[in-house]
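Dear U.,

For the methods section draft, I wanted the exact inputs and outputs in one place so we can describe them consistently. I've listed the two proteins in the order they'll appear in the manuscript figures. Please don't edit the token lines directly; just add comments below if something needs changing.

First protein:
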Amino acid sequence: MNEEARGDAPESGSDKLILALPKGRILTESAPLLHAAGIDPEPSFHDENARALRFTTSRPDVDIIRVRSFDVATFVAFGAAQLGICGSDVLMEFDFNEIYAPVDLGIGRCRLSVAEPADLAASDDPSRWSHIRIATKYPELTRRHFAARGVQAECIKLNGAMELAPTLGLCHRIVDLVSSGRTLQENGLKEIERIAEVSSRFIVNRAALKTRPEVIGAWIERFRAAARGLIADAA
């Protein structure tokens, strides 16, 4: 990434910070953390029919943008947003040097796993693999994982409905996020290997942290305290 991309994007003529949040389940799970950190979005943020993607908050110095989970990392890496909440799966896939992920928020917990049809899993031996074809939305992460074992992984990029790939003969195996494992089971698949444990992280743009250390550093500490508080409450 060139120098222009590394966190030097203009902030629309103000010092307002932009916090990027992912759509979906993590957005819901992050609500208590945002409140504990002192950020309450405007009412329209909670309107499922609202088409706006940028929202004001109870903090005049912070706006929220709501984007796809994979795009959170891109907005923060390129400096369009200075702060974000992002799954560690996305961070591993992109491996942006421009992102600093100082806080594990303890939400969005799941695992990234390899799965295959249950009948194949009954006799399959992953230690004997030398070349495999896999459907996944994590091609870079998947290739790195198997390359470390000397296995060549041919990755077919899919953005959803991963479980259909083995059923329809696209490939025998998938790499995807697994929570309870129910979706795999209902589609005749079995989890055979865990690649990584996944959770959501509070992330910041490194250039923003360098140029505004007190401001960005304060938000890191607020989200760290908020995460600790939620963990204590859960205990």
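Second protein (the one for the lower panel):
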Amino acid sequence: MNTLRWSQIGIIILSVWVSGQSVAQQASNNPVALDTVKIEQLTGIKGKLDAAESVFKVSQPRTDLNAIVAGVKMIPPMGLTSWAGFQATGDQVMVMGDIVLLEDQVNPVMSAALDNGLEVTGLHNHFLWDKPRIMFMHIGGMGNLEALSTGVGKVFAKVQETHSGKKLAAGKLDAAKTSLDPKPIETIIGAPVEKTGEVYKVTLGRTTQMSGHSAGKAMGVNTWAVFAGSDEKAIVEGDFAMLESELQGVLKALRGAGINIAAIHQHMANETPKIVFLHYWGAGSVSDLAKAIKTALDTQAK
């Protein structure tokens, strides 16, 4: 009798455990429904549900651009519409989007994304011979619906705020007349400085594998910075080579120091690990610019 009773108890416990596992599995397989009203409210943009993929997309056509590409007068349906798509994934929400920007809007809008919990995952052009120059910034994120929707709303608000922003003033700096002292660059960054023509360059190598072979600094897998101008009025421009996991830290460091981001993309295919490249441009004193580059370098894995 005792043996039978304990067997029955074991079966009951097992049944309860299996039932609990089944409920938990169902919960994980059935994502929460999107609150589309809240998304529209927090983003400030009307959206549309794609029922087949359970994605709610908010879109904003750039009707203000008056863009011409290779002599063709463009309209928003020809790829000139900013959007963000929301999709429930378990108990969280995923967002992905593409923001259409004029050149002078790129960095203010990028900062709005980074400062409000979103990731910036790409920055590039989609056209050639476009007037005005148009850039496309890709954003993403994973988290709760309210935080992501608020972040996307901040991005769209910054686009509106800057759509008639001021252009960068014409420069008066001639790189061929560079007179800066390279020693602070070398001291701050902690790497040798090479004089290339009339300017000064720092190059730091990374390593990846291509078709089973190592590719490094000499093959273009490197971070570099070129400095030109005088000690107090200088520019820095260059390229960061990063692991995908390092991108957001480098972006935040550079934007936090007022460095402009010009492009985010790949230079290779099928490499391991994946290397992302970021092109940048900044102006200021040599010391401040070198400190900005060093701060970004320090965010990368050693």
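Candidate sentences for the figure legend, describing the second protein: The longest helix spans residues 2-29. The chain has seven helices and 17 strands.

Thanks,
Y.
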